[in-house]
Structures are given as C-alpha cells and as structure tokens.
Specification:
Helix content: 10-25%
Radius of gyration: 18 Å
Number of strands: 8
Number of helices: 1
Oligomer: single chain
Strand content: 25-35%
Shape: elongated
Structural class: alpha+beta
Length: 129
C-alpha cells in the first residue's frame, strides 16, 4: 500500500495542542480524513480519527455519550460506572472513551504514516510563513 497524497489543514485551536488535520489518500483510491496532528509533551504526533463511545440509559435505552451524567432523552441520572457499547466486555477507563474509526494494524505502517503526515505538516507550516 502506498500513500499517494497527504493534505494538511492547519488549525488555530483554543487549547493550542491541536495543530492541524490531515487527509491521507492511499493508492489513489482510498481516503482517511480527520487525522489529527497534536503537540504533546514529547513532540508532535498523529491521532487517528475516532468517535465517542455510547452507553445505554437503564431507564429508556437511549444511547448517551460515555461519562454523561444525565440521559439526553429522559433526563434520568445515569450510573457513575458504566460500560460503553463497543462489542468488548473490558472495563471502562479514560482511554476507552473514544474508539478509532480507522487505524494502522502494524507498528511499521503507523511509523510510516506518522512520518509522511508530519513531513507534510512541516512543509505546510513553511508555506504559510
């Protein structure tokens, strides 16, 4: 699989950690949007597109975002410890609040993808200046 295009969209976010979004095209036939370029404590890295997990309300069954205090449908108070609907029966923690929509399977491909996206990010920063 070949990365055929990387587009960078620089952001001026309020928290200043989110630096850009990337859109990556593979083999001129498949696109992944909303890869985030984030400034962390150890430098810049990428985060794959993700979505928030949902938990069902015990009263009405409405699926609310994980860690919600009240149901958005019936306004009932939700249990403090809840299990997200994710197809897995593992415990809920802060890192499992989001689930990747698309992600690399191997460490080698993750490193290649990060290298290409961060190189394009650096080029885009130079263009803007």
């Amino acid at each position: 699989m070949e990365i055929t295009e990387v587009r960078i969209f620089l952001k001026d976010s309020v928290d200043k950690k989110l630096k850009a979004y990337a859109t990556v095209t593979f083999d001129d036939s498949f696109v992944v949007r909303n890869i985030k370029v984030i400034e962390g404590t150890n430098g810049v890295f990428i985060a794959m597109p993700s979505r928030k997990l949902k938990t069902p309300c015990p009263k009405c069954g409405f699926r609310n975002e994980a860690r919600s205090k009240y149901c958005n449908q019936c306004a009932s108070q939700l249990p403090l410890v809840s299990q997200p609907l994710s197809g897995q029966s593992q415990g809920f923690d802060a890192q499992s609040e989001h689930k990747d929509i698309a992600h690399p399977i191997t460490q080698e491909f993750r490193e290649l993808l990060q290298k290409k996206v961060l190189a394009a990010y650096e080029q885009e920063k130079v263009k803007v200046k």
